[in-house]
Amino acid sequence: MTRLFTFLAAAFLALPALAVELGDDGLHKTDWMRDTFKDLSEDLAEANAEGKRLAVIVEQRGCVYCTKMHNEVFPQPELADYIRENFFVVQINLHGDTEITDLDGEVLSEKDAARKWGLLFTPSILFLPEEVEDGKSAGQSAVALMPGAFALGTTLDLFTWVNEKRYALDGDEDFQRYHARRIQERDNGKTD
């Protein structure tokens, strides 16, 4: 009985370390997310000034897949460090009323922006180019979209593929081929 009590006490004490911070809006918060005025043109300019890529993550309160990503995938040091070093991440609430300014200049609520961009799943991450055409929204300008929750390898590979601008390279290595190659390299012990 003493062993069981000791085990349960240790497990209970470990829980706060595993908990992910939730904001007042019910969304998960990380140190690599930026608290901005949600003017995406300004966010893009700031990301560029820092030498980073702008990514917009769309989440919702109570999303089990968001929780999975924030508890199991995003905290992995390899991914968290990569995001922190290379990306400027702005969080949008799928059902939020906070006003944002889209890249095309339209001012609308977070929920209306998510609808405009055609986002149905959370989490979804829009990856934006360093320069956007005048009059194009974030949804129209995105170079990649991660619709939903994925494992560490897929998530890291997509962030890397975007950061390395592989979407703009000529050739036959779209993301799926790139990801398949990276899986093979990891299986062969050539990469981390």
From TrEMBL:
Keywords: Signal. Residues 1-19 form the signal peptide. Pfam families: Thioredoxin_2. SUPFAM superfamilies: Thioredoxin-like (SSF52833). This is Thioredoxin family protein. It comes from the Bacteria. The lineage of its organism: Bacteria, Pseudomonadati, Pseudomonadota, Alphaproteobacteria, Rhodobacterales. Gene3D superfamilies: Glutaredoxin. It comes from Roseovarius pelagicus. Residues 48-131 form the Thioredoxin-like fold domain.
